[in-house]
């Protein structure tokens, strides 16, 4: 990690992305914090070493312009979209396109753009924020889950392509973390009642600490995948256990 100087974190306006941006900046990295909420990013930029980049990931050319001249050592593909929790027939075509655009297309394209320079410099670490929904089917999440499954396979295939190069790939697979993703899809009150009232949830800062742990290991150690769940959630599933012990 000593050779890493600059990081780019998408979805940095709130939640996991914000926590990761703060964690990396606290360790001395310059962080390009990318998101759509300019006000939230400006507040984040009051911290040292954080450069706010307000942009829509469906329009990557504007982000590439900001990145011009920057040598990105750490890329955190964290931005994700769950338009709403609903059966496929109740989603609009726009819902489907938006999730594919943000969760898949922008991730693949941005990774390709950054990876070219990482290969040339022979250093770098790329993170992907996946989801347990990419491994286990959940009702109301067919499209979202499929996009996260695609990201997981993408990350695995990249490891094969980069074999022998000192470039690491880590997939983060959170269970239910307290973020705006579910509050946007379900509504704040419904998300609180359905997802968070019955157990102590994982917090974004816990994910950020794990990112730092993976980065600080020697370059020849690749933490390929981390599944992060509250102790009350069954691994890979939606079952929540009553905390009776």
From TrEMBL:
<dbReference type="InterPro" id="IPR020904">
    <property type="entry name" value="Sc_DH/Rdtase_CS"/>
</dbReference>
<comment type="similarity">
    <text>Belongs to the short-chain dehydrogenases/reductases (SDR) family.</text>
</comment>
<dbReference type="InterPro" id="IPR002347">
    <property type="entry name" value="SDR_fam"/>
</dbReference>
<dbReference type="GO" id="GO:0016491">
    <property type="term" value="F:oxidoreductase activity"/>
</dbReference>
<dbReference type="InterPro" id="IPR036291">
    <property type="entry name" value="NAD(P)-bd_dom_sf"/>
</dbReference>
<keyword id="KW-0560">Oxidoreductase</keyword>
<protein>
    <submittedName>
        <fullName>SDR family oxidoreductase</fullName>
        <ecNumber>1.-.-.-</ecNumber>
    </submittedName>
</protein>
<dbReference type="Pfam" id="PF00106">
    <property type="entry name" value="adh_short"/>
</dbReference>
């Amino acid at each position: 990690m000593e050779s890493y100087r600059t990081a780019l974190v998408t979805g940095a306006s709130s939640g996991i992305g914000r926590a990761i941006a703060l964690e990396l900046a606290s360790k001395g990295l310059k962080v390009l914090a990318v998101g759509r909420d300019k006000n939230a990013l400006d507040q984040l930029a009051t911290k040292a070493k954080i450069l706010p980049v307000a942009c829509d990931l469906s329009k990557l050319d504007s982000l590439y312009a900001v990145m011009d001249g920057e040598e990105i050592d750490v890329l955190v593909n964290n931005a994700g979209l769950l338009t709403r929790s609903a059966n496929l027939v109740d989603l609009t075509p726009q819902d489907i396109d938006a999730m594919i655009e943000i969760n898949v297309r922008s991730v693949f394209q941005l990774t390709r753009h950054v990876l070219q320079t990482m290969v040339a410099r022979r250093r770098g670490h790329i993170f992907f924020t996946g989801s347990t929904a990419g491994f286990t089917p959940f009702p109301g999440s067919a499209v979202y889950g499929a996009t996260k499954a695609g990201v997981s396979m993408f990350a695995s295939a990249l490891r094969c392509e980069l074999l022998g190069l000192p470039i690491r790939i880590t997939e983060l697979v959170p269970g239910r973390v307290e973020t705006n993703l579910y509050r946007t899809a379900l509504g704040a009150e419904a998300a609180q009642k359905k997802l968070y009232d019955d157990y102590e949830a994982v917090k974004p800062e816990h994910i950020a600490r794990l990112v730092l742990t993976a980065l600080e290991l020697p370059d020849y150690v690749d933490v390929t995948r981390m599944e992060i769940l509250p102790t009350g959630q069954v691994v890979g599933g939606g079952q929540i256990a009553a905390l009776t012990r």
